[in-house]
Design goal:
Blueprint: H1 2-6, H2 24-43, H3 47-60, H4 65-77, H5 81-94, H6 99-111, H7 115-128, H8 133-140
Length: 141
């Protein structure tokens, strides 16, 4: 996951007014700040605001698996499972070892009535972390 967290593609735009365009490091810091704000709203159960901040983090650094994973969790809390599935799938495309991404993808598949796809996701979690109790429980169910 460290590799995915470190990656950040920044499209350099023309500077707005005086000053230099953002450096990749500045973009990374800004994206992390958005994620932290999203986390704070998520903790307060303000999922709409959390969603907005996770989206800002993604817009700033679109190649970070955890940002998509966090937004997927938020969408799940909002009952928007099809959108959450897309974000969970994007998180594991960016980082196939992102356990929480696979878990969320599996839970979305379950919520959408696709037990076979969910089972594959939970099996992948167990390949990555054979002691993962959430995945073990889901596989037993």
């Amino acid at each position: 996951m460290a590799a995915a967290a470190a990656e950040c593609d920044v499209i350099m735009a023309a500077p707005e007014g005086p000053g230099e365009p953002e450096s990749e490091e500045e973009a990374r810091r800004e994206a992390e700040s958005f994620k932290e704000q999203g986390n704070a709203y998520y903790a307060k159960k303000d999922y709409n605001e959390a969603y907005n901040y996770y989206t800002k983090a993604i817009d700033t650094c679109p190649n970070n698996a955890s940002y998509y994973g966090n937004r997927a969790a938020t969408l799940m809390m909002l009952g928007r499972f099809r959108e959450a599935l897309g974000d969970a799938q994007q998180s594991v495309r960016l980082d196939d070892s992102f356990v929480r991404g696979h878990l969320r993808e599996g839970k979305c598949h379950l919520s959408l009535g696709n037990a076979m796809a969910a089972s594959r996701c939970f099996q992948r979690v167990l390949e990555l972390d054979h002691k993962n109790t959430q995945a073990q429980q889901e596989v037993r169910n």
